[in-house]
Amino acid sequence: MACSTTLLTTGAPFQPQRIRGAWQHPFPIDRRVWAHTVRNDWSSDEESAWIRVAKFSLYNQLFLSDLLHLFASRDTSSKPEALDLRCASTVSLTRMGRVLQVSPETLVAGFCVEAPMPVLSRANQHLRFCAKCMESGFHSALFQWDFVGQCPIHKTQLIVGCPACQTPIPYFLDSKLAAKPLQCTACSLRLVPNLHNPAGW
User: Fold this and answer.
1) Is residue 3 in a domain?
2) Is pLDDT above 60 for 180?
């Protein structure tokens, strides 16, 4: 089982101290030296950016602000509230690759397009997936294109929305994904049950 942590820069490990009856860090947490858990054995080169980010969020249980700090592109003047995971230009491929331990070239293949263009309107803004692929923890950006009707591997119809309550699942890195990674944001159905099972860690 390959489980590792990534340090964005070098730094001493945090040593919590008991202050006034509660465990606290002796100094403010610096996100530049924060360690993140990455499970390389749960990923493959053909995965979509959505499922890579969702798995990372599940492993690390970070706030949306922390996820945006790690992954968002710095090219915009305003701070984004969500990232469109159909388009590679919304993220910093270099930083994302460093954190996820994946090359930028591999990451860019997990988006529908590299930069905004008219054809992006044909890529769905809600998650489309193959139930059998998702059960094994796999999702491809190919599934987001509305003209792709079935999984090329399993020959089954792609699903849009939660299988239990039919609520659409946004294809964004937003507050919903941060709060409920790999789950329906309405009924909390787990899309990849094995990844939530402690026995699988």
Assistant:
1) no
2) yes
